[in-house]
Amino acid sequence: MKKLWDGIKGIYQLHLQIAPLMKELAEAHKENEALRLRLRELETKADIRSKVELRGRVYYLTEPLKGYSEGPFCALCLDEDGILITAMPGAVAGYWRCRRCERKRHA
């Protein structure tokens, strides 16, 4: 009976040692997933940057990008936030308006 009790105590002690390690592993896994997501975001932004050219004060795609028109895109939204926002024609010919940042730009 004493051997059984000693075995149970040993297993309990191992469990107490393993529990913090399991918590650390879960936290590391969560951090790893967040870093993978951030890496994918940065790769997407780099891919977009490699496929646009600045014409005047708006960007246009130089090659097709799934889900996007040819342009024009707001230069400020791409430069500051790395996202493609279609620029809308302004009230005056030659001007563009961004529906996201609300800035008006001359082409």
Quick rundown:
The chain is of the alpha+beta class and 107 residues long. It has helices at residues 2-49, 75-81; strands at residues 52-55, 58-61, 73-74, 87-89, 95-98, 104-106.
Q: Specify Rg, calculated over alpha carbons.
A: 27 Å
Q: How many distinct folded domains?
A: 2
| Silhouette | rod-shaped
Average pLDDT figure: 87
State the total count of DSSP E strands: 6
Largest sheet: 3 strands, antiparallel
Oligomerization category of the chains in this entry: single chain
The assigned structural class equals alpha+beta
Question: Helical content, roughly?
Answer: 40-55%
Strand order, sheet with most strands: 1-2-3
Task: Considering the chains and any ligands shown, give keywords for the structure.
107 residues; alpha+beta; 2 domains; 3-stranded antiparallel β-sheet; 19% strand
